[in-house]
Amino acid sequence: MAKSKNKAKKLSYISVPSQIINSISSSSLQSLLESPKKSSSRPTSMNKFFNFNFTSPRLFFSTLFFIGLFGMIKFGFDVDIPFSPYPCSISLPQQHQHSQLQSKSKLGALSKVDESVHNAEKEGVFNAATNSLSQSHTVVSNVQLQARGSNVDGEEVVEKSEFWKQPNGLGYKPCLEFSRDYRMASEGVVKERRKYLMVVVSGGMNQQRNQIVDAVVIARILGASLVVPILQVNVIWGDESEFADIFDLEHFKRVLANDVHVVSALPSTHLMTKPVEGSPPLHVTPSWIRARYLKRLNREGVLLLRGLDSRLSKDLPSDLQKLRCKVLQSLFVHWKTKQIADSKCSFHLSFQVAFNALRFAKPVLELGNKIAERMKSKGPYLALHLRMEKDVWVRTGCLPGLSPKYDEIVNNERIQRPKLLTARSNMTYHERKLAGLCPLNAVEVTRLLKALGAPKNARIYWAGGEPLGGKEALYPLINEFQHFYSKADLALPGELEPFKNKASLLAAIDYIVCEKSDVFMPSHGGNMGHAIQGHRAYAGHKKYITPNKRQMLPYFLNSSLPEAEFNKIVKGLHQDSLGQPELRTSKAGRDVTKYPVPECMCNGSRSRSRS
């Protein structure tokens, strides 16, 4: 190619921001880009000024520098720039900017949105985007916003409703004050190194949790060191999780350091000791425990107890009731933060630090919190604990009401395994149902929620195992409340993989999301429902709906009752069953972990005088 200086026209190219191009006239731009020609006519003073010699490299680069500086100033201060200040078209509509800022730290999306994102990737949406820059910006924008849980398509905000109103907590807050005698005795108890209590706990996660609480109390009664409880392999689910898989072991030891000495294993001095074994009867007292085991424990050095479920009395001396509360899982961060912000509540804050011995392990806690945040990102949510698993229908002696096919499955299982039946065997199914001993099915849960004023667009998290009948069993709820999610719906791909086939860990995740909900309701009583009831009380008596099954079911069976009348009656039956403070002492045999007032909570006037 010829390189004749005389014939070839030499051009200089400069990279200039598009905003500058829009603001400079074409003639001015032309004068900047083209090399100046030698004037054939007599030069004017202006021509002399612009008649630069670009053969000088220093002058050429100086010119580029000043043009670039001008471009940066123009780009930075021109408020009328027609481009978004956010790259890649990820700017939000004005009405969603505030919610995006609030959820900036959240991982974001419900899994249905995530599935659409991953499907889009699989179908090559991002590859096709290279053919059109503007199209790719739109796709990337939507994907990024959806992954952050943003309301791209103008999804309706959860309707404001009386349903979300919280009960009056009457000023009750957690407060533990052990007696002087208890504190004086603690010094000797925590130094104990001769006597050791070993326990084997059974059942599901919540059942194990209750037995661990009582194991700590029994160790205190006997003045023994507690070996970290052994979790028996679950017969139904085959879960082999150990204590440290579910709970934070070091935290457990640290919080109880002033109450009971906790060790991970028997010391070498006691390994060859044959332990004294026992299984206490139901509802034993501290005096029975001492009379039965203390002398032999002092002699042998090791006591092994099995089957502690409901073995220890619900009515214990005040200090031991407080110890039960202290062992319970910690309150959540939102309550603690509130106390920190209020300098007048330093007494409650110091209590909060101790009120958390049985806290979930870090991986469980982190995923549970993430899922709860995803539910919370669009407003308040309701959590349901649905007891619709096959074994629940078998054990309660009830029928799911789906179809004759499933009723026959339950009846056959009950005949083959009669020991599973835990309800009163001399009662028929209908008698159990009217006595309030059966779990609510999906139709009944739906009618109850509608009667209590749950908005149709309410966001609902449901916890529990796979229902008998699968998704079909949940259709009444899904059809009425379309924002209906489980942990499997909300978890991102791979998040639940570490917990696969570990029913106790999955139950712990459900527990966390349910406890953090604005409203909680179980379809049937049980260990999880009772634990969450007490936990929500500690958190300030957050709304907890207790279905009044015995009184409301006759109205469910009355098909001639108009819906408006039905709703009014059912709502009236539950006006005192919404999580308001209840004294444990008002009814015999109540568990302090379910009803923490008055042993573990006190109201404003009482707490101020004590602090």
Automatic annotation (TrEMBL):
GO BP terms: fucose metabolic process
Keyword set includes Cytoplasm: no
Family membership: Belongs to the glycosyltransferase GT106 family.
GO cellular component, one term: cytoplasm
Main subcellular location of this protein, as a coarse class: membrane
Gene3D superfamilies named among the record's database cross-references: 3.40.50.11350
UniProt keyword annotations, A-Z: Carbohydrate metabolism, Fucose metabolism, Glycoprotein, Glycosyltransferase, Membrane, Signal-anchor, Transferase, Transmembrane, Transmembrane helix
Cellular location(s): Membrane
Membrane-traversing stretches: 59-77
Lineage: Eukaryota, Viridiplantae, Streptophyta, Embryophyta, Tracheophyta
Signal peptide extent: none
Pfam families: O-FucT
The name this protein goes by in its record: O-fucosyltransferase family protein
Involved pathway(s): Glycan metabolism
One GO MF term attached to the UniProt entry: glycosyltransferase activity
Membrane topology annotation: Single-pass type II membrane protein
Species whose genome carries this gene: Arachis hypogaea (Peanut)
